[in-house]
Design a protein that fits this description.
The structure is a homodimer. In chain A, 76% of the residues lie in helices and 0% in strands. Chain A is mainly alpha-helical. Chain A starts with 8 loop residues before the first helix and ends with a helix.
DNA sequence: GTCTATAGACGGATAGAC
DNA sequence: GTCTATCCGTCTATAGAC
């Protein structure tokens, strides 16, 4: 085995700058539409220098995807089966909406990947993701069995939370165009709307 | 003025084949990720022959977008202010969901365009689209004033209908991966879920 | 670690024969 | 209308000097 190289401060800094720049470009253009030149100049590096840190465009992209998938699913993992059902679901909606507000590039990166057929994370989708959603669905069904929330299709409930919250990141341009110049931040209204929507839908009786 | 050329049957057929192939490729790869070669071979033509019908890649793309925008908004235009409020909204949801089922490529084409900053339809979004949504919002507010539906933020209601229905086209791969191999058609369940969701949310009292 | 220079493949678009 | 051949630009990636 080779000795691990000492990682200098400048290495860490450049690697981070590259991944940040790559997130900018890939999330806006998709994998095929992005170019290494755009990433390099956005990171303040020359193209060969960037390729000194990552062996290929593909390697940058998969490094990004791999790091992101886990953090992206954390809010769902945080859902507590022992908590108050409606409060737990509303908290999940809010966390997801906050991620759309604070990490829109990450949301668009995943959206691009899925729309293009998820060629690089198809395995994760039908593995990790599917298992996690199935577990969550069991919890939701149990809550409905106990009469603590109204009965809903649990898988489609999860889909609806994803689509509603991610919409404000992925379709941000459209949301702002429709709301007009007067609205500088659509998120407070979105949060109130989603809270109302899910409360009315899930309150028993 | 030049005389309009007679349009032969083969011209109409090739033009249609090109647009159909372009829809395949652009919806899957986005504008930058698509190549003229892919479109040409998918249409059964050589690259120079394709460029005999359209002057450029850009021209094919804008021709597609222009033709699609109108039909895409037709379901919203069909919403009748004189009809029963809940029935009108549920009918709109259903028409949009049917479009996701029957025209997923069109949905993905728009999704790609918006995610990438809508460089070619920004004007339409803050013009035609915004006016149409504003008119619809007034109708929804009026229905709430009259107590015929529960009060909701009308703009975000429209956003939620878009995001929930288009999700089943744009994120089709993810939906099917999560539901598993047993589910061949997610749409019947989706329709039932959305009908329940909006009925509970909009029923007054 | 970072650069200039460039290889080699592929992109959009055109010329011109048929 | 359709083809082969090709121009020219840009792409990813590498070689090699410093």
């Amino acid at each position: 085995m080779a000795q691990p190289r000492p990682v200098t401060r400048i290495q860490r800094k450049n690697r981070a700058a590259i991944l940040d720049a790559a997130l900018d470009v890939f999330s806006l253009k998709g994998f095929d539409g992005a170019t290494v030149d755009q990433i390099a100049s956005s990171a303040g590096l020359s193209k060969p220098n960037l390729l000194y840190y990552f062996p290929s465009k593909e390697a940058i992209y998969t490094a990004l995807l791999g790091e992101l998938l886990d953090t992206w699913l954390d809010p769902l993992r945080a859902l507590d089966p022992g908590g108050d059902p409606l409060a737990e679901i509303l908290a999940y909606v809010q966390r997801k909406l906050e991620m759309s507000r604070d990490f829109p590039r990450e949301s668009r990166l995943f959206a691009n990947e899925i729309i293009q057929g998820a060629p690089r994370i198809a395995g994760e989708l039908s593995g990790t993701l599917r298992d996690l959603v199935d577990d969550t669905a069991k919890v939701i069904d149990l809550w409905a069995d106990e009469g603590r929330i109204a009965r809903v299709n649990p898988h489609h409930l999860v889909f609806s939370i994803w689509s509603l919250t991610q919409h404000y990141a992925d379709f941000d341009v459209q949301v702002r165009a429709v709301l007009g110049e007067g609205v500088t931040d659509p998120f407070p209204e979105a949060e109130a709307y989603l809270r109302t929507m899910f409360t009315r839908m899930l309150t028993p009786g």
